[in-house]
Amino acid sequence: MKFRSQNRVIYAYVAIIVIQGCTSVFAASTDVTDIPFEHLIQTDIITASRIGQQISNAPSAVSTVTAEDIRKFGYRTLADIIGSMRGLYTTNDRTYTYMGGRGFGRTGDYAGRVMLLIDGYQANDNLYNAAYLGNDGLLDAELIDRVEYVSGPGGVTYGNGAFYGIINVITKKGSDINGVQTALDAGSFGSQKERVTYGKTLANGLNILLSASRFASDGQTHYYPEFDSPATNNGRAENLDDERNRRFFGKLIFDKWTLIGAFVSRRKSDPTAQFGADFNVSPNWIQDSNGFIDLKYDADFNAQHKASYRTYYGQYQYRSRAVFTGEFYSEKNMGRWWGAEAKFTNTSIANHKLLYGVEYRNDYQQDFYLPDASLEHSQYLISGYTQDEYQWLRNVRLNMGARYDYGGKNATFVSPRVAAIYSATEETDVKVSYASAFRRPNVYEKYYSDPSFLLPNRNLRKETVDATELVIESRPDSQTKIQNSFFYYTTQNLISASEVGGPGIIQYGNWDKAITRGADIELDHFWKSGMHLKTSYAWQLVEDGNGQWMVNSPRHLFKSNFSMPLLSNQLYLGVELQSFGKRLSEQRNDIAGYSLVNVSLSSTHLIPHVNVSATVRNLFDRDYAIAASGFNAQETILQDGRNIWLQMVYQWP
């Protein structure tokens, strides 16, 4: 389906929404005070600069998804949430889900270039620098309070890897649960999930949240024409799409202390036979085990001087089993790290809000255990940063900062940022910013060695980005927010994989540069009746140093989410439209664009103590595919057709 034909779908959808918005049948429902939009505008965010500030004061463009959005649209994973956000997209190759932002989203690029935080803790692992977004992710969607997306480099406050943007997931507190929840889910492809969550504020002031869940799915039978021969089951991969996971999460808040811990173990079979494995031969699975503990103490010396101290430990293990030309192959990789940070804020100087801090991270284990060799590595990073938010004039704020990272020749970098925020009126802010960031090559890209598909490159250098961005934010009334951004990025020494030495043999190298230019717009509007519309459109063009369009980088992304109350607010209907323009495969062939419609119906008050929801994704059962990675024999990977997910949550009285 070409993008031109998608426009008719978009126009019809928007027209329906406008008609619904003008209908007065719901006018007597809820009062505007029940709608949290003004509160949302005034909500403090910490992602943009680590200083709590209103969204309108942040130096970058900010988008959020709340717990209410997650419930109303039936999002099950962080990938679902991210896929709904301005300018972002995800692709799934039947083993992992990859995130694309600012036009970069090559399938198989584990590192990505948007940093993932969980309550401020950097959740990317230290082997592949990967962010886990699907059933391999650390969190159940029901435990998320909100997700913040700040576009643009965040090198000043987050350093290595905060390249094209930052996503911070803020989890719920025990008081948000206020009791015991048990949840039972079931869905297409033989999928089921169970969850038990306890949350409470105890008499001694301890705020506690504990949760455990289990997920299982039988998966589907997949057909791949590249393997269509009698010797390979005529291209049918059977009983090789199953998935299992276990999750545990805990959050304790007492006085000024916060302790958070999470763990997930996920096993997924691979029906695509990546890396040249024997097709339709079992076993062929991967297993990811990921966890962390994060301890934070917030100190208030006085009204003008505050501090925050954090220490953390994380680990990640990768295991795989597969058969290659009849021989059994296994792999086990292990990463461990710890770190500490101290940051301080000072508002004692008139019109200045100062932030400064130091951070140390020790990746003391980065090991690959292969059948023929063991590769053991470690690295560290020492950082110092400072930032000043200066109220220069009554309606002009300046945000200036820099960070110095030191960790050897591939991790020594100064990340500056300069931003100006001009409040043209009480309703309109104009933000102009320039920032730089870097990402050093991860150990997989640089050192991993398997002569059958991946060669090491010990000369691999860090990649850097220089970004200029203009943001115009308007709040024409208390129920509406419109945000526009225009951006231009120059990426130097882009790290990317390409074939060397023969078909199927790849190596990571530094490309000359890549240029990103684009613009996006987001509209967020609440009606007094309780209806809510969030719509965004992004145009982004990414070209390499030769002027060639980058792989798996759609130029057009349209998102629209509409929800409305039914039956006197006992039910909520959520309708989501996502349209993506065409993109290129690894073979530089066109992959057609597509449009998807998802529908969710949820209830919170229809049955006492019970919340129920039903979600249908890909309502019209569209056939669509994404670009496969260089690890696959396939050029494209067909995605899921229509699928259904049912959930029942019981809140114990």
SSE order and pairing:
Blueprint (H helix, E strand, L loop, with lengths): L2 H20 L14 H6 L1 E2 L7 E2 L7 E5 H6 L5 H6 L4 E5 L4 E5 L12 E5 L2 E2 L21 E8 L3 H4 L6 E7 L2 H4 L1 E9 L3 E11 L5 E11 L4 E2 L12 E2 L5 E12 L2 E13 L15 E16 L4 E20 L2 E20 L5 E18 L4 E20 L2 E11 L6 E11 L4 E12 L3 H5 L6 E2 L7 E15 L2 E13 L2 E5 L6 E5 L2 E14 L5 E13 L11 E11 L4 E10 L2 E2 L5 E2 L2 E14 L2 E8 L7 E3 L8 E3 L4 E10 L1
Parallel strand pairs: 6-9, 25-29
Antiparallel strand pairs: 1-2, 3-8, 4-5, 6-7, 8-9, 10-11, 10-40, 11-12, 12-15, 13-14, 15-16, 16-17, 17-18, 18-19, 19-20, 20-21, 21-22, 22-23, 23-24, 24-26, 26-27, 27-30, 28-29, 30-31, 31-32, 32-33, 33-36, 34-35, 36-37, 37-40, 38-39
Description of the structure:
- It is a single chain.
- Residues 1-42 have low confidence and may be disordered.
- This protein is globular.
- By secondary structure, the protein is mostly beta strands.
- The N and C termini lie far apart (50 Å).
- It has one domain: Beta Barrel (Maltoporin, Chain A).
- It has seven helices and 40 strands.
- The strands form eight sheets. The protein has a 22-stranded antiparallel barrel.
- A hairpin with a 3-residue loop joins strand 10 (179-187) and strand 11.
